Amino acid sequence: MSKIAKIITAAIVLIGVGYFSFGHHEKASGNETLTVGIMSGDKRTDEQWDIIKKNAKKEGLDLKIKTFTDYTQPNAALTSGDIDANAFQHYIFLNDWNKTHKSDIVPVADTIAVAGRLYSNKHKSLDEIPNGGVVAISNTKITQGRTLLTLQAAGLIKVDSNVKDPTLKDITENPKNLQFKELGTDQLVRVLPEVDLASPDSSFIVGAGRSIKDAIWVRPLDKSQHDGVNIIATTKKKAKSDAIKKFIKAYQQKNVADYIDNKSGTGEVAVWDDPAFKK
């Protein structure tokens, strides 16, 4: 055999070995992939999803996480087919979204609940909030409604009882004539020295190096707030698929609940096995 023929033969053998090795590798790791949309977070968010992804692998599912920076994006991506499921919203937000956008997104599992917390750099109790006091509030509907309901639970305002996800226009009583300053959700911690009261998301409090224990008032969590529980959501077509079932199982594990309840430091509560949220 000529030298050139030997080289060609060797090349063919190598390609064949590579082909079969690659094919075997694909077969060995041929888990189904599910793409899940979440809101971008911090190190705590990454750690929590690392646990969920490891759980999913044990179920034969590879989770691909896609992060978003705007609350309108994950549902739009789900409807368009860019993702298979998302985990960022509560029931109230989803119901409003479906009504507005005529979509068929459905909730398939409960995840977490977050107690409403009120913070102030100027005052140590709600009694100290002055008449005409300034309240910094999110300009995003998903968090503005939650804050208004927290303020109502604290006895500072009343909102229209027929509205589940209120906005500022739904305030019916404001005995202290509180003044509301609408800002981006990520700015609420920064302006605490300038205002009398605010209710930043716990993740932003922790991200700013503060503790949720700094809150001057905390709304107790109970099943009356079930509409405000965060959920896993997907399209009606995919809701009963094996991949979604595996994802739910991977999320609703004890190691995930332990991280959420005891290690995240955000005050979030894993609700799927919490007696306080059983219907």
From TrEMBL:
- Which Pfam families does the record associate with it? Lipoprotein_9
Predominant localisation class: membrane
Topological category with respect to the lipid bilayer: Lipid-anchor
Q: Where in the cell is it found?
A: Membrane
Keywords noted in UniProt: Lipoprotein, Membrane, Palmitate, Signal
Show the Gene3D superfamilies listed in the entry. Answer: Periplasmic binding protein-like II
Q: Which InterPro entries match?
A: Lipoprotein_NlpA
Superkingdom classification of source: Bacteria
- What does the sequence similarity comment in the record state about its family? Belongs to the NlpA lipoprotein family.
Protein's recorded name? Methionine ABC transporter substrate-binding protein
- Look up and give the organism this protein is from: Fructobacillus broussonetiae
